[in-house]
Amino acid sequence: MFVDARQIEQNTTLRTTVCIVGAGVAGITLALQMQRMGIDACVLESGGYKPDEDTRDLYRGENAGLSYSFADGCRSRYLGGSSNCWGGWCRPLDPWDLERRDWVPHSGWPFGLDELKPYYERTHDLLKLGPHNFVPAWWEAAIGRADVRRLPLSGENIRDTISQFSPPVRFGKLYREALASADRVKVLLHANVIAIESDAHAGTVTHVSVATLCGKRLRVVAQRFVLAAGGIENARLMLASNRASPAGWATPTTWWAATLWTIRG
Ligand SMILES: Cc1cc2nc3c(=O)[nH]c(=O)nc-3n(C[C@H](O)[C@H](O)[C@H](O)COP(=O)(O)OP(=O)(O)OC[C@H]3O[C@@H](n4cnc5c(N)ncnc54)[C@H](O)[C@@H]3O)c2cc1C
Prior knowledge:
Blueprint: E1 2-4, E2 12-21, H1 25-37, E3 41-44, H2 53-56, E4 89-90, H3 113-127, H4 136-143, E5 164-165, H5 171-174, H6 176-180, E6 185-189, E7 192-198, E8 205-211, E9 217-227, H7 231-240, H8 253-264
Parallel strand pairs: 1-6, 2-3, 2-9, 3-6
Antiparallel strand pairs: 4-5, 7-8, 8-9
């Protein structure tokens, strides 16, 4: 079901099993899975059903490095997240995408591609893709047209790859009805998570603090928390949550663990 956080009584505490921050691609995918598994979940989404200027302003930031109009101008801060503006290109990651690179500080993921493989097939239905096959020769044969041929590449330094296109799926539109009728999942709109709160030693997350743009405050207590606010916002939120530890939640191990627990379940 959907709830407008602006209508909730000031300083309310909501209790749930899994609290998901953000209703974009990751958040909605997890919420649908929680519903299927019969697990109570509360999704906290900053925006509403449609884009609005005031919420979008929260994405404002400076772009350093390559010139690219991202920050508030490009990302979408409302139900469905950046699936509202994504292009739809899809293909699985390669093993080296997750590896540590000596020349890139803090690079490398705490798991390899094998951890993700079992889930790729399921994304095809979610994203309305074709068969779970990314072998160029297979597609060349399946398309079977004389004018659609692979380039005759030779050597090991260059290879061809296949991407598939999602229509592209806009998660907030396609899955809105499923979320509206979900009895296990409560999606709070206009609910900005402003801090991840912990015990005094920053060892255990106790709750998240939420604010609306009209001044409402509430908090959500849960057994598990999943950050699904987008790559940049997850980091900003962890760094800003520095009440118990000056560096904030700079070590995301706890979050990976929580996320994997949720997906595996
Ligand atoms: C222009 C563009 C084109 C793209 N094209 C492609 C493509 O072709 N192929 C591809 O694979 N990927 C593409 N992407 C990337 C893809 O859209 C993202 O990887 C994907 O949306 C990330 O999903 P997410 O759930 O992590 O974050 P998002 O989809 O960004 O969702 C995050 C959600 O969290 C909410 N939120 C943020 N902060 C808070 C907060 N503090 N409290 C509560 N809620 C919050 C936001 O409102 C949003 O709804 C593109 C992205 C953009 C911007």
